[in-house]
Amino acid sequence: LKQSVLSLNAALEICENAMENMVWDAMIKQTLEKKYENNYEMYLAYRDVVDPVILRIRNLNPQVKRITIYSSNETLYSHGDNMRKIERLEKLPEGIEDYKIHWETEENRRLEMYCGIYTKSESDRNVVYLDVDYDRVFGYLSGLFQEDYGVLVADELGNSVFSCWKFRDEAAGYGLTADDILEEKSSLGRYVIYEESIPVNGWKIWLYRPLKVVSASAWSITALVFVVILLCVGIILAASYALTDSVVRPLKELIRNMDQIKEGHLMVDIQGDDKDEIGRLILRFSDLMSRMDC
Asked: What is the pTM of this model?
């Protein structure tokens, strides 16, 4: 989830940077403030300023599908998708007069940005509109896991921006909405939910999985660890037995021979090697018995 937040934050930040490049471009401001006397002056403004700036930003930011400047400048005529009369803007986000970036979303369908351009003339109104490629920004969230998970993204007001879920048992109704999580419904007890905040705009993102799926994964890991522990214990016991046998068996044989000598039987057969201290001890004892026989 943290990696997804970083990726999503980077994508949204790129869009905001594109918007700021448009809004604070000095040449764009001058173009919008100027009063044009003929079509040729407008043509030069479009050819030398508006079109190149928009083309450059779109080429550098492939997730931006469309950039349109809406202006109330009566001497500026519409110019394709790049320049339009502000009357053609169906609605403006609330508070657009603050000259800050405003996001407009529609769950799983639309992602748009609006921002006002500050100009010297208070009577003129200019707004930049960016149509963002929804699938480019959110599409990768649909493949975080193969199945049995859900992802939700909501804006700062709690409105759902993106939602996706994939569950093997679709009839169980595991899909959640932003309202379900924000209202902390009792049904959330059957989920494991992780929450993160997207720094660039304060949106929230949730990753949730059914508790039984997470528990099943945990049990499989626990079983594997248990098997590994048993295997290690078995290896330790086998190694201990082998080590004990290699040490104790020669000593028992030496004690048996010493008991025979104690009973007066000097002819004893003692076998040993010089690979370790016990073997060398047995060889020394065997040498001693050989000299006594002589």
From this structure: 0.69
Encoded tokens for 37:
């006397």
Decide the pairing of beta strands 149-154 and 204-210. Answer: antiparallel
CA gap 104, 179 in Å, rounded:
19
Query: Each residue of 17-36: pLDDT tens digit?
Result: 999 999 999 999 999 999 99
- Say how many residues make up the chain: 294
Give the C-alpha separation, 194 to 3, whole Å.
13
Question: pLDDT tens digits, residue range 198-244?
Answer: 999 999 999 988 877 766 666 677 778 888 998 999 999 888 887 77
106 is written with which tokens? 């529609």
203 close to 156: Cβ distance less than 8 angstroms: yes
